[in-house]
Amino acid sequence: MQKTGSFLMGLTILVVFLIWGNVSSKMGLSTLLTMTGYFILLIITTLSMTALTVYTQKNKNNEDKHRDSK
After folding, report:
1. pTM: predicted TM-score of the whole model, two decimal places
2. Does 70 reside within a domain?
3. What sections of the protein cross the membrane (predicted)?
4. Per-residue model confidence (pLDDT) at position 2
5. Which residue range is the domain that position 56 belongs to?
6. Which pLDDT tens digit goes with each residue over 24-65?
7. Buried b (16+ CB within 10 A) or exposed e, 33-52
């Protein structure tokens, strides 16, 4: 589950970064605005990957506790 989720999250992040690069160049944004957008996307990426990792670890721990209690 975690490997598949991480792969899909990484693929989604790659696509979002590519779309942002394309949109910013089509809109003629300055380098500063483009880099600010990339920085914001990087923060969102870090938070979402952390949330995914915490969620999968909690599920794994709950499954281990449930299995051990049987």
Report:
1. 0.71
2. no
3. 7-23, 35-55
4. 64
5. 2-65
6. 999 998 999 999 999 999 999 899 888 888 888 888 777 777
7. ebeebeeeeeeebeeeeeee
Residue 70 reports pLDDT greater than 80: no
3-state SS string over 4-61?
A: HHHHHHHHHHHHHHHHHHHHHHHHCCCHHHHHHHHHHHHHHHHHHHHHHHHHHHHHHH
**Is residue 54 in a domain?**
yes
Question: For tokens 């909690």, what's the residue?
Answer: 58
Residue 35 domain flag = yes
Task: Report which residue type is found at 15.
Answer: V
